[in-house]
């Protein structure tokens, strides 16, 4: 619509809205900024808010920012500190972005005194990868400040400097060494970009998950690191919660009118402590590289799905204007208007609060809203529905653990936060004092941050294939097998599958053997049968030990099948059957690698072909291992080793992958 039009569902803007625009928002309109969110995104306001929390709750508790001074007001304090610690220090304008106006100093005389300059202690011991400094861009979504609801996206960007880090003062003016902003480093002649979105650990911009997988391989505790990052994010948002929540109550007529995506820039030091550099009001959504597009497109898609929009014809709205205006006079100014019909996922909850798949939980759901006002019921249902639509976003506040840890820090004393925590987590058993439960909660998110992100295009293809399979199943009069992986109450995970191209590559390896090794090749149907036996529980094995074949018995999700017969009849494999067949396929490759080669190793042509096929297996393992839900460290053989040693090591690693693949799928 035209920028001056009022007939919109979403207003996406790069700046704050004027109070009169906020007050004019209807119950079906949303805007992507909260009033006064500059309390987080202006560096001076952020520093003052965090300093206030340090005074109230202890310096160590809120030690998330490097030591900072605002000049010229605190110039004398800075000079006194400088006399004890000569730095270096970093100077930043309080309201700039993209590295503009940022420079390092090692003497106060080097500062150009202007209004609103921020001077912070420079983190001189950053964590390095291949001797390069980097920071991490994280995407944080807040959907409400009263009650406070915070989500963190599972994927982010690690942005590297373009010159190797050197702590000596002679390089203090080299921005390409000390600043990690993409806007700065893309101007460097040493900047390296990557054109393949599936290669996430090459060049000057990595995915956050690739960075975490690298650190994990180096023996670093990435679960603790990300727990500390979540801690930093929650404390940062909590520090501004009072001011922003108060502004929402003052300027907004309806709850749910605002949401906000923040860009948190975090630097990690060599002790794995994360430091907050800044919070960006409107993080860049530009896609200068395929990896940008992969991450940002998925993140935006999941964000809009989570937030939920009421899609209404503007022409219908005008006919309801008189009703709204007369009705709003009688209502509380901060209470949502009732809607005559559900218009989208976000408001369908009013008419149908529980989907058909959740009808069994009616008793628990019904009791969970007893004693609540209509406004509280709406808020509770909205938060629950958001969480079910969250996609790749992870709700980090409130959770049972984070409510216990940070609930007391909330300064906006309303009943909504307490209501939300007590109603969402009715089944929790006092997490305070339970170390094992705390550690379990810390580790629960680590897998999400470390797994490789599935692109938006692939997710769409999978949905289309799933719908097509369901349609074929209905046409054939059969039903889809029960899913083996279920979402938990706190976190859900989209199934990760091995990429089809990787399976085709491996097919070439096995297919090329058919001409020379037919005699030693076991039947594929026998291999599937073996896999089936391995997967059966021991209790089932006991029942069939007296001569019955357990694979001929019907298991919970699948019955025994003959792969060759299914394919010859042009039939379709179910998801479980396909996975079992692929697992048997991999076992065949492993058996071949374990087989003695004899005199063939002396044949250069055979050795070259074997080398090529082993390289395909290595490439498959490198890519497929990162797609598993469970972390699997691949120690692949060096080309310097002899052929027999490489075959043996590769067979062992393939066996480890098969075990993990079977568990996951």
From TrEMBL:
Pfam families: TTL. Gene3D superfamilies: ATP-grasp fold, B domain (3.30.470.20). It catalyses: L-glutamyl-[protein] + L-glutamate + ATP = gamma-L-glutamyl-L-glutamyl-[protein] + ADP + phosphate + H(+). GO terms for biological process: microtubule cytoskeleton organization. Residues 325-365, 468-505 are annotated as: Disordered. GO terms for cellular component: ciliary basal body; microtubule. Keywords: ATP-binding, Ligase, Microtubule, Nucleotide-binding. The keyword ATP-binding applies. Residues 491-505 have a biased composition (Acidic residues). It comes from the Eukaryota. One of its GO terms (molecular function) is tubulin binding. The keyword Thylakoid does not apply. Signal peptide: none annotated. Belongs to the tubulin--tyrosine ligase family. This is Tubulin--tyrosine ligase-like protein 5. It comes from Zapornia atra (Henderson crake). The gene is Ttll5.
